[in-house]
Specification:
The complex is a heterodimer of chains A (334) and B (289). Chain A has 334 residues and is of the alpha+beta class. Chain A contains nine helices and 18 strands. Classes of the chains: A alpha+beta (334), B mainly alpha (289).
């Protein structure tokens, strides 16, 4: 169980309103990702749910019970922190057992759950080491182990992968996703990395300045972004935007099209431009094209085999049905 | 940076400081050792100076004042350590809380450290502990009790109190910086893990402070072993407050027996080293973790 409902939740630090009134429902078993640029209030929102910050107004319900004023330990949630927050003077075993000892479970039950968690997370060989002797990925797993032994109704992750190197991050991303598939427990995951959000989430919540910009599945957000902010935030490389006469032709204040939705040709097309930087990834190449009419640089994604060099002239044509149109206030035009 | 040339230049420039410090330490040490093997009473022209072998050492230890003075030393050091560390941890926890006027309060807490030992002992003796006009005497009388004559009824406790008052700021300061270096996410994690405040203190904060406590114990022990002014000003070594340091002082300056006092000084060096090794053994593990 783990259905979390936020009802007109607000948070103010002094006179600064970090979270304006906000409603959100997270269904049981869902993997929800809060994503947004830094300072958008996503971590604050997570801490409000955890109970580490007090609400300024509004209510939080977990499984139908109002927990707005319930202390963190009694909410039945477990949290994995960005710094892992392992207890440096305790062995891995004691770290994982700590919440169980605090809950005053008997020793046999504690041992059973710790060895279960160690099994699931491949930590058996490290149980008697201290956190200081572990690598980043192992520490991360210990932190997750400490969370799962409590058998919480929901897991909260606060940017858990940001301290890992790129290769480990991809690995841990998979592990967390697999863990979710196996446990079927609600998970709320905070990140600023839209790739993590896209790859892991059942539901993405895009936040900006404490406001929810859009809620939806990864593909909903990719295909039908509700406004220019979401359109620019989701997808990598980011969406190209054009304003002015070109947009007016489509009956919009601005049009957006993703780098992968552009046709490229050496002979003919809608816009003529000069290739600036070419980023070769092997499978794909990202070309940064400077249009001849002096507009903004357009990023285009082409096949890795496409040969284009700095200074070459290319022609670009957007795929008509993949053009997103936005009004002057940034909202999508249906 | 570390070329041959720059390294020898660095050695050359460090040499004056090293030589000065070494001389500062070695000359008195050698003189103490030298005198400790001699009969030397400058005010008694009738006693001829000369070598006496280990006579001074035997006399110092067999004197009836020796073992009580070692005991007194240990009680004062131990008592002051206990009080400064327990109160220091509590004060550091308190000062770590956000509150109005934090800066001023912190400076006030540190203030006793700036007061000279002689002055603070005089302040305690005359303003607080005086049996007629002292603040404590007034307090006791206000409750209808007979005032305590602190310096003769509870002399060792009084001195421990004065010394603790002086060293509490040091302990508080070191422990406060240690508490401030504790990762707040660890406390939040333990809160989420269901640890009540007391458990959080014993399982998270206290282990985090162990290294700082070790340092406080080591540094304070070194300084507390040589407490002198507080005893000189208050009891003058009477009522069983004669520490090893004070005994040496009496042998050299009151009995004018330089040889005997020097032998005591060598004993003091040995005692300090034994305690230092002992402490390093116990707490060394904490330091290299």
């Amino acid at each position: 169980m783990g259905r979390i409902v936020l009802d007109k939740v607000t948070k103010r630090f002094g006179s600064v309103e970090v979270i304006p009134p906000l409603d959100l429902t997270i269904e049981d078993g869902e993997f929800t990702v809060f994503v947004g640029p830094s300072g958008c209030g996503k971590s604050t929102l997570l801490r409000l749910i955890a109970g580490l910050e007090d609400l300024s107004s509004g209510h939080i319900e977990i499984d139908g019970a109002d927990v707005s004023t319930v202390p963190p330990a009694k909410r039945g949630l477990a949290m994995v922190f960005q710094s892992y927050a392992l207890y440096p003077h305790m062995s891995v075993r004691k770290n994982i057992a700590f919440p169980l000892r605090m809950a005053k479970l008997d020793q046999a039950e504690i041992d059973r759950r710790v060895s279960n968690a160690a099994q699931v997370l491949n930590l058996n060989d490290y149980l008697d080491r201290r956190p200081g002797q572990l690598s980043g990925g192992q520490r991360q797993r210990v932190a997750i182990g400490r969370a799962i032994v409590r058998e919480p109704s929901a897991f909260l992750f606060d940017e858990p992968l940001s301290n890992l190197d790129a290769a480990l991050r991809v690995g841990m991303r998979l592990e967390i996703s697999e863990l979710h598939k196996r446990l079927q427990t609600t998970m709320i995951y905070v990140t600023h990395d839209q790739v993590e959000a896209m790859t892991m989430a059942d539901k993405i919540v895009v936040l900006r300045a404490g406001n929810i910009e859009q809620v939806g599945s990864p593909l909903e957000l990719y295909n039908r972004p509700r406004n220019r902010f979401v359109a620019g935030f989701i997808g990598s490389p980011r969406m190209n935007f054009l304003e002015g006469a070109v947009a007016a032709k489509h009956g919009a204040h601005a049009i957006g099209f993703r780098p992968e939705h552009l046709g490229i040709s050496l002979t003919e097309g809608e816009w003529r431009g000069k290739v600036g930087v070419a980023e070769h990834l092997g499978s794909d190449t990202f070309l940064h094209v400077h249009p001849e009419n002096g507009g903004e640089t357009i990023t285009v994604r082409v096949d890795g085999e496409f040969s284009a060099r700095h200074g070459d002239i290319v022609y670009l044509t957007p795929v008509a049905e993949k053009i997103h149109r936005f009004a002057a206030d940034g909202l999508r035009i249906q | 940076m570390a070329t041959q040339h720059s390294r020898s230049a660095a050695r050359l420039m460090m040499a004056p400081a090293v030589i000065l410090l070494l001389g500062w330490m070695l000359v008195p040490l050698v003189m103490t050792l030298w005198f400790s093997f001699r009969r030397f009473l400058p005010n008694r022209p009738d006693i001829v100076p000369g070598w006496v072998g280990f006579d001074n050492y035997v006399r110092f230890v067999t004197s009836s004042a020796f073992w009580p003075s070692v005991q007194t030393t240990l009680i004062i050091v131990g008592g002051a350590l206990l009080i400064t560390i327990i109160l220091g941890v509590l004060l550091a926890l308190l000062l770590d809380q956000p509150m109005w006027g934090q800066g001023v309060v912190r400076i006030l807490v540190i203030a006793p450290f700036f007061v000279m030992p002689t002055v603070s002992a005089l302040v305690w003796k005359n303003i607080f502990m005086d049996p007629v006009n002292g603040l404590f005497a007034h307090l006791w009388r206000a409750f209808g009790a007979e005032p305590i004559v602190w310096l003769s009824d509870a002399p060792i406790f009084s001195i421990v109190l004065i010394v603790s008052w002086q060293w509490l700021p040091f302990a508080t300061l070191i422990l406060l910086t240690a508490i401030q270096s504790l990762d707040s996410e660890q406390l939040e994690a333990s809160e989420m893990d269901g640890a009540p405040p007391l458990s959080r203190f014993f399982y998270i904060i206290l282990p985090h402070l162990s290294r700082a406590i070790t340092i406080v114990i080591l540094i304070q022990t070194i300084f507390l072993l040589s407490v002198f002014a507080e005893i000189f000003v208050t009891t003058g070594g009477a009522f069983g407050t004669r520490t090893l340091t004070y005994l040496i002082f009496q042998r050299v300056l009151e009995s004018q027996n330089v040889g005997l006092g020097s032998a005591g000084g060598v004993y003091a060096i040995i005692l300090a080293n034994i305690i230092a090794i002992f402490l390093m053994r116990i707490v060394g593990k904490n330091l290299d973790a």
